[in-house]
Each structure stands twice: as structure tokens, then as C-alpha cells.
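Minutes, project check-in
Item: structure for the 629-residue chain
Input as provided by the requester:
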Amino acid sequence: MFWVYIFTVLSAAVSAHRDFTAPVVYGGGSNSTAMILPLFFNDRDPRHVGSRRHLGGTNPNARMPLHDDLLLHGYYTTRLWIGTPPQRFALIVDTGSTVTYVPCSTCVQCGNHQDPKFQPDQSSTYQPVKCNTDCTCDSDREQCTYERQYAEMSSSSGVLGEDIVAFGTLSELNPQRAVFGCENVETGDLYSQHADGIMGLGRGDLSIVDQLVGKGVINDSFSLCYGGMDVGGGAMVLGGISPPADIVFAHSNPARSPYYNIDLREIYVAGKVLPLNPRVFDGKHGTVLDSGTTYAYLPKAAFVAFKEAIMKELHSLQRVAGPDSNYKDICFSGAGSDVSKLSSIFPSVEMAFGNGQKLLLSPENYLFRHSKVSGAYCLGFFQNGRDPTTLLGGIIVRNTLVTYDREHENIGFWKTNCSELWERLQLPTPLSPFPDENKNDSSISDAPMPLPSEPPLPQTPVSGDLKVGEVAFSVLLNMTYSDLKPQISELIQLIVNGLKVNVSQVKLIGFSSEESGTLTEWAIFPAKPDKYMSNATAMDIISKLEKDQLNLASSFGSYKIFGWKTRPPSKWIWLHKSYVAAVLAVLVVFVLALSASVAWIVWRRNHSLTAYKPVDSAVAEQELQPLQT
């Protein structure tokens, strides 16, 4: 049954427990959680993958930016928009998972994530995947369900739905209908992580890649390009691209294992091959690439040989303890903080494949910064417990375009600056439409409506202009809070000048000290006396943030702006108005009642004084009136 999956996690995810808990560093970053997202096995015969029909002609692709960074957050995310009108989500890109899922509004146990939960009832194009013989059904046998279990005991479960998925401003690919998971329960790291969910890029019928290829709308290929050390973000492409002339390919055999494997044969350190039998890299699942894993994990013999070869070349550096005493990280100090000079200090590393081609790894592909010692670096390679699988995580491919050419069973590697990928590939910048609210089919090609700049504002079904209560964003500054505190006023003024807003609109709503500096949280509120700003105004602010018009570098050094989003006008405004109105109404009623009571008392008193006479008091005689006869 293709909806039913057997979940097999590489024992690396269990034995290499440090990947979930070890504090790691990205650009002098904070203690954070490195991540292994498990590689799931599915019961589809892998031999069928190789016989997939080849797509003729040139299909469009979906170009999408990547956000966050590998060692600071443990993952990279991209943005997807689901539904009509579209609802935005930040999803971890994971080549080891085969389902895409987001928190659902019906979730009974979901964490506080980056974006609001998906609301199926607010999407005119949402349809549940009805219970059938090919899926596991819910207790009412009405809707198909899914479940994913992770090595550190976190999990995700929910129902399967189908809706229109849009890919952002750089996508040539029109929005498409796709099946995804609508989370009802999440636990562990999935509950506590900032990202909303996961975008599954693995081999499997629920994979977003398999679904798009099955529709014939993209070539059977996708690419990822992770930013380098000290540079977050990156890029991804769903669909084919023209490979650069000097790209290095390795064969990937889908019949070998259900994961994205490569035929690694040898590793060279400083030009010398490690004394290993090539079969050491072919144990169990072989050599597997997994974008959801942070570091690299080698079988014991390969790790020992690699570690010794590296240490033999580092004569001028001093061995230091790792950033966390719970782990025996191999670290060296004295290398300085300039990443561009690391290649003159640390040895070159090369990976040789079965076809004779070699991939050159720079130091940023096997090192991470020490979080507590300036100018110190630690090996990002570890022993994979007793598992003979070689697991290569994202550190291996920093500043490397990795093309998963599934159609030709190859994986390509091209060293490049991922922050300038589109320019280096000489690709134009197209615009992609959001899904048309009146269209229910998967083509959606009529009258494209341009997207706002990435990341766009959340869309909600409103009449007239969208009302925005605030624009929130984060700024990570490479300085301590004690150094930043005296300059807060200057920072606010730079934000005011860069965003063209009033001082009264800018609020510092929070801060936290990080190993890499100070993380500040900001909000831009409507100009007084307005209670909200227009959609156009909010989009203009976000556009300035995206283009980094704050120009903080001259005064504050290196910094990073990220996480911008909008929030609707606060319900407190309505509650406050209602409360004030209610209080005024009560006061008016009280005053009227009090006035009426006083008037009644006065009247009674006066009436009583007129009517009461003592018994012995004199009373004026009154004229007798004749009787009526």
C-alpha cells in the first residue's frame, strides 16, 4: 500500500545522539540543536524508480530561496504557500523525508511556530484525501492519515489533504495541486522548533518532487545550494537546470537503497588517499546524502583514518577542548576568524567517486566554529556509532550546488557562492502567480497575479484592503547587549530612516543574548492615530527589509535581518473599544438611576410635608358645597 510507510531510521540517528543535543557554532553562533531528520523507507520497489518515464522537452522549474542556516538552527527552510487564498509556511527542506506537512488548525498538540496554523476551512480549494484501501484511515474511516517518528522520539501525525501549493516569486512553475499532511499532533523537537514543518524531497509517492514529476510539470530533478560559513540562506530549484560545465557527478543508484546515495570510493587528505578499502563506504545503505542532517558520519575505520590524517597536517595549531564537555569534539585554536584564510591553514579534502571524478572540500565543508574560543574550529565529521552507513549531512555541501538528477541517476556537485547562485547560473528572474481563487484545477495559467516580494504578506479573505496591525522582524547583531544598549536610540533612528516611518511606530519588543551576538525583535506599528496600516504600506516596509535598506553596517558591523512577517490588528483594540463603551454605558445608566432615585426621594419628602398635619393643628374652614339633587 503506497500510503503506508515502514519507518526505518539509520542507527546513526540513534547512536550519534550528539547530533540532537550538542551545542554547535555557525559564525560564532549560539548553542543550538543540530538535527538529523530520519531517512524513511517506503515499500515501493526501488527498481521502479529507474524505469520512470523520461520527460521530453523543457519544463519550467520552481526557484526558491532558502532561509536560516545549518549550524545555527540545525536546518534550512524554504517558503511554501498552501490554499486559496494562500497561507504561508516555513518548511525544513529534507531529502530524507517523503512527506510535506504543516500544523493544522485542528491540531490538539502543536508548538508555537513561525507562522499561523493552516486553516482548511479558509481555503476554497482544500479537499481531504478520503479514506481508501491504499491508506491508513482515521477512526471514523473518513480521511487518510500519516505518521512520522523521529530518532530522538519526536513525531508528527495527522490527516492527508490536497490543496494548491505555490512556490514563490522566483518560480516559473505555476501553483499546483498536491497532497500534504495536516498535523494534529507533534512531539519532541518538532513541537519546539521554530520552523512550521517539513518539506519532504525524498523518493516516495507523497514526496513533493514525485508528485510534480508525476504531473509532468517538472523534470525529474531538483537542486539545493546551502550558504557557506558565516553566510546563512541559499537556494533550491524544483525541476531541471542546465548543469555548469565543471560540475562533478557521482552515480546514485535507486535500486541500491531508497535514499539518495552516491558511490564514494576514496577520501584524500592533503593529496594523500586514506588507507581504506573502498567497500568501507558501501556498508548497509552505502553513502547517503541527507539535507536534514547537520554533520557527516563515517564508519569507524574511515573516521579514525580521517581524524588522524587531519591532525597530522595541523602542526601550528593547538588542540583545545570542545564547546560542550559532554562530547569529545576535536577542536583546534589559533586559526583566526577569517574564513577566506582557512584553506592556507587546514588541509584540502577530496572525495573520489566510482567514475573517477573528485569533489574538493574546503575547510568550511568539514569544520564548524568553536562557540567559546575565538579563532578555534572543530571537526564536523563524527563516527557513525556501529552503523556501517556513511551519512553526509549539509556541512559537506556548504557553498555547493547539489543537483539531484533523478532522471539520469546522478548527483552533481558544483562549488559556488550560493548567495549569488542565480547570477552565476545566469538565470532570469520570472514572476509566479498565486493560485487564482476562482480556479480549482492544477493548471492555473490564466491572468497571472504577481506575488509581493519574498517573503510575502499573509493573505486573508477580506473585502477591500487587507488591514495589517504590525510588521514584525528580527535583527541579529554581532555585538553584546551591553555594547548595544547605549546605541539603541541610534539603532531605532536608522530603522526609522531606512523604513521611512515615524519614531513612534518603531518598538523594540524583545532581545536575547546569543553566542554570536544579540538577537533583537522589532515591530513596526501603524502611524498614530491609525489602528492599522494598509496592505500596500506593509508590503513597502517588507520590501525595504528584504532589500536591507536599514544600512546598519557602518555603525553596528555585521548583522542579519530575517523572520519578517505581518500580524493582523490586535483584537485588544476591539475589546478595548467595547470595554470602554460598556463602562460608559454602565456609568450613564448608574448616573441616570442615581438621579432618578434622588428625584424620587426629594419628591416623596416634599409630598409628605404637604399632606401631614398634626391632630391639634388649626385648619381653615372650607365652604360647604350644596348637595347635588
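Outcome recorded: The longest strand covers residues 155-166.
No further action items on this chain.
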